[in-house]
Design goal:
Largest sheet: 5 strands, mixed
Strand content: 35-45%
Distance between the termini: 44 Å
CATH topology: Immunoglobulin-like
Radius of gyration: 17 Å
CATH superfamily: ApaG domain
CATH architecture: Sandwich
Strand order of the largest sheet: 3-11-10-6-7
Number of domains: 1
Oligomer: single chain
């Protein structure tokens, strides 16, 4: 039997295929949870807004379960320059809150910026410009974009920890 979230994913893939824009994706899986990061392509221009998103799905036996994680959410993004020194590591608050999820209600997160840096970092000017831009642009080069899902199941934030990471390597010209 195919779960509702898998049917939804199959329908979306079929629609994308018939429209001629099958997305590229990477998948991480643990237990009843799957994290996907997807974009419509891997090559971009530095002038283009890069559009990608992550989706966390639950294919367990319950109609709904609760994930425990940061009040900011449970899915975050990092951006790492391949062969370079620029790293925008995901960051989130350490508070703990509930996040419901069910087979028919995945958690979908469009790319959002997070991270921090020191004012004396050699790349501080780049980081300031990156965070000041309301859109997701990258300069020329190869970049790994990681979607990270960090949460606990069971008894609150002290429950069973699950950490999933899926990534795409983008080429920006």
């Amino acid at each position: 039997m195919i779960g509702v979230s898998r049917l939804t994913a199959l329908a979306a893939a079929l629609a994308a295929f018939t429209a001629g824009c099958l997305p590229v994706e990477d998948i991480a899986h643990e237990g009843d949870f799957t994290l996907r990061i997807a974009a419509d392509r891997l090559a971009w221009s530095s002038a283009e807004e890069i559009k990608l998103a992550a989706t966390l799905t639950y294919d367990g036996p319950l109609a709904e379960t609760t994930l425990w994680g940061s009040g900011d959410g449970v899915v975050f993004f990092s951006v790492i320059e391949i062969g370079g020194t620029r790293r925008l590591e995901a960051s989130w608050h350490s508070d703990c809150g509930p996040h419901p999820i069910g087979p028919a209600e995945p958690i979908h997160v469009p790319y959002r910026k997070s991270g921090g840096f020191s004012a004396d970092d050699p790349n501080a000017a780049f980081y300031r410009a990156f965070f000041a831009d309301p859109l997701f642009h990258l300069p020329p080069g190869r970049w790994e974009v990681l979607a990270q899902a960090n949460f606990a199941t069971g008894d609150g934030c002290g429950g069973n920890p699950i950490n999933l990471v899926a990534s795409l390597v983008l080429t920006v010209a």
